[in-house]
Amino acid sequence: MSSLRLLAVSWYLQFKMILRSPFDGIGNVLYPLFFATTALFVFRAGHSPRTLIYASLGAAVMGMWSAVSTSAGSAMQRERWWGTLELLVAAPRHFSLVMLPATLGLATVGVYNLTATLLWGRFVFGIPLTITHPLLFALSIIGTALSFGGLGLLFAVSFVRFRAAWVLGNFFEYPVWLICGFLVPLALLPGWVRPISWVLAPTWGMNAIRESALGGTPLPDLLLCLALGLGYVGAAVLVTDRVLYDARGRGTLSLT
Amino acid sequence: MIVAARIFVVGGLTSFRALFYWLTPWIYVPTMLIAPIFQILLFAYIGRSAGLESDEFYLIGNALQYAAIPCLFAMAQMVGGERYQNTLSAILVSPAPRIPLFFGRSLPVVINGAFVAAFSLLVGALVLGVHLPASSLAPLLLIVLIAAFSCTGLGLVNAAASLRIRENAVLSNVIFGFLLIFTGANVPLDSLPDWMGTVAQGLPFTHAIKAAREVAAGASLGDVRGLLGAELLVGAIYGVAGYALLRWFEVLGRRYATLERS
Predict the structure, then answer these.
(1) Interface test with chain A among B49, B168, B191, by most A beta carbons within 10 Å
(2) Residues 6+ positions from A251 with CB-CB distance below 8 Å
């Protein structure tokens, strides 16, 4: 119970901090919107049977991913800059339980990105927002956000030994946009890319959101997305233990 | 004259080398050399998915437009980096003539921007299997250089804004986003609303991208001289406007003691 309270309070604190950060709260919301707009123009001018609502949903999840990928990679780096990393590591709670709210906070901004992009598509491009399964749609968004938070946590703890961790977070923005089927069907990509897409929760989150909006069976995709998200959290806990053990042994936590 | 030339060359190079104090290969390679390839691939595949235009269209558009990242960010860093290292006041209090001071810092940025765009164009062509005729490579290199010059002009405006705005990274990203939409890098200009097509005529890259596509399709440099002239003119106008803004904001910064506001 106290772990849940820690998660909730830390998430709220992190979310408030993100909202007051010009880069995370404004830049990370605006930036993917430019890509979404470009993609919607391309689809509107194109001759594809894929509808604008297909593109709009994909562009919306792109924004959601951007919010997490760009800043999650440097989540621990920020604590290091603020001088709070050592304090958090020394706290009696498992460190991953302290970091997870930071990436969940970013994923929450991602939900805002998703909503903003859908509304942008509705009011600027006139794309109708008809959701076939509203409840499943909402669940798919929440499930996808949670799994993004899990993947963000894995990024955060994996990149802690890199001084340029923020670059690695940025680096994963385009590839995930490309190979997780947000705007490009997986069938169009080379065959060797698909197994990589399958182990990425955004692929299944995108499927679940699209299936619930356009009509289909989103539950299997949603469950896969959540299962992968849990897997990322489990992997992140193991990586955290290893990285912190190593950093303590070598005295390299601060990287100074 | 010699002093001005020294400030232009040595000052510019020193400032640019200082940029690499933090822009190490760990940052340079992913952001400048790999990310543009993924941007090219992303839009080439979106184009395939949407059934709009060829791979060559997206390759050229995005390779050139990505020069905006080095040009805009490095120019903003010209002010932001000096402020961060507490050297901005020392530079602006010096009697150094401002034209070589500011434009000297722009020249290495132009060269780096052109290198990033040229690298993206060549590697993107290899990855996507787009054939660029050998005869078009030298003209394309010149076009890339002109595009980088033009965007560095806009970067100078961005640098000036950095004297008044703390969040120059956010501003640079926003300008990059506008260039992505408006310049025809991914959306043919005739598919954009008329007003956007009109705005595009006054932005860096619009004319260079069009010229590059025509050259890749077999046109000669002479055939696209009008487009290149327009691109140079756009860059020069932004450069002059950026210089004027830098001087104005410098005066304001002194008057209100806000140079070090960070």
Answers:
(1) B49
(2) none
Degrees to nearest 5, angle at CA A250 with A248 and A256? 95
How buried is A250 (Cβ within 10 angstroms: 0-12 exposed, 13-18 middle, 19+ buried)? exposed
ipTM of the complex: 0.88
Helix ranges (DSSP H) in B183-224 = 194-200, 206-216
Q: Record the pTM.
A: 0.89
Q: Tokens at residue A145, please? A: 């956000």
Cross-chain residue pair A167–B173, CB shorter than 8 Å: no
For residue B191, how many other CB atoms are within 10 A of its CB? 16
How far, rounded to the nearest angstrom, does the alpha carbon of residue A11 sit from its chain's CA centroid? 15
- Give the pair of three-digit tokens for residue B45: 């595949």
Give the integer Cα–Cα distance in Å for A189 and B82: 44
SS3 B60: helix
Quick one: closest CA in B to A179, which residue? B42
Contact B200, B231 (CB under 8 A): no
The per-residue pLDDT for range B15-70, each reduced to its tens digit, is 777 766 667 788 888 888 999 999 999 999 999 988 888 999 999 999 999 999 99
